[in-house]
Amino acid sequence: MGTKFNEIVEITKEFTQDLKTSSLSDEIDSLNLKYLGRQGKVNSLFKSLPIKSDPKIGQQINHLKKFIQTKLSEKLEAALSVAGHQVIDVTVPGIPILKGSLHPLTQTIEEIESIFKGLGFVRRRYPEVETDWYYAEGLNIPKDHPARDDQETFYVGENVVLTAHTSNGQLREMEYKKNPPIKMINIGKTYRRQFDASHTPMFHQFEGLVIDKNINITHLLGVTDYFVKQYFGPDRRTRLRPHHFQFTEPSFEIDISCGLCQGTGLIGKTSCKICKSGWLELGGAGMVHPLVLRNGGFNPDECSGFAFGWGVERVLMMKSGLPDLRLIFSDDIRFLNQF
Ligand code: DAH
């Protein structure tokens, strides 16, 4: 018992000394071999025990083995991190790679664009800082019309505005194409002096314009219905409601059937919370006024056309049930992650 015990003490001393003088990882590896290897000191000690030896000696040797293991792995870890290596624990869960995505508005604009492209429309972008002619005068909007009021409109110079609608694109497109046919969708930014749950000073509109021989209201209805069914779903219906705009005659507001009550205005026996009447307003449209055709250099006796101007944020809100438009322009990742 005594000699084996002495051997344990000797090995412990030697190991402690060895450990002090080795710092590189391969030095530590060779200590591992020297003490814990198959031919190593600890194993030899085990092997040298007589068959009927005191179990306490076995325990002591096991202690020594554990002690050496712990010290060596601590030292190895320190050596590796000094050498600039990270000790890799393969059991730690990985860091997820965050994937970006397009902003919901960009997604909506792309979807609108692709629906209209499917009907042969070309995508345009026309100026968002515009002169009075394209923005108002040429569209038959008189001087005293509220659309020109500086309470509503951002003036950036004399007779120069940040466009409050995308309808300036109508005259611009006629000037550019010079002759029918025209089939364009102008998607751009629009600006108005307003800010509440359903209005922001900057928003987006998409303006459609179709001009050709014999274009009539049924074409407007057909295109509208196609867009509504593609964007909102095949069970949605469309209706025209008489309205007034300076640059169309006749003019309409377009309504679509409510997706919640299916156009009935009722959920069970109570009135639908979303629409109350069964219908939701999409936006304005109409047959291009002959004066506007003329202002664009087209002959109203030879061609006719329809136009519409609808809000991008508005259709996104109608489709997703968003309660507050301002959320779209927030940078709240919890909101954005939903799209
Ligand atoms: N420009 C109108 C607005 O911003 C919307 C509009 C109505 C556009 C009728 C049109 C149209 O092209 O035909 O309120």
Give the key terms.
single chain, 339 residues, alpha+beta, BirA Bifunctional Protein, domain 2, 2 domains, 7-stranded mixed beta sheet, 3-stranded antiparallel beta sheet, 11 helices, 12 strands, elongated, binds 3,4-dihydroxyphenylalanine
CATH architecture of the largest domain: 2-Layer Sandwich
Query: What percentage of the residues does DSSP assign to strands (E)?
Result: 15-25%
Identify every distinct bound molecule in the structure, by name, code or SMILES.
3,4-dihydroxyphenylalanine
CATH superfamily of the largest domain: Bira Bifunctional Protein, Domain 2
Poorly predicted sequence stretches spanning 5 or more consecutive residues: none
Radius of gyration: 39 Å
* SSE arrangement, N to C: HHHHHEEHEEHEEHEEEEEHEHH
**CATH topology category name of the largest domain:** BirA Bifunctional Protein, domain 2
What is the first-to-last residue Cα distance? 75 Å
Structural class call reads: alpha+beta
Approximately how much helix is present in the residues? 25-40%
Describe it.
Its cofactor is Mg(2+). Its EC number is 6.1.1.20. With 339 residues, the protein is α+β, with helices and mostly antiparallel strands. It folds into 2 domains: 2-84; 104-336, BirA Bifunctional Protein, domain 2 (2-Layer Sandwich). 38% of the residues lie in helices and 21% in strands. Strands 1-5-6-12-11-8-7 form a 7-stranded mixed beta sheet. Strands 2-4-3 form a 3-stranded antiparallel beta sheet. Strand 3 (155-157) and strand 4 form a beta hairpin. Helix 2 packs antiparallel against helix 4 (55-82) and helix 5 crosses helix 10. The longest helix has 28 residues, at 55-82. The relative contact order is 0.10. The mean pLDDT is 93.
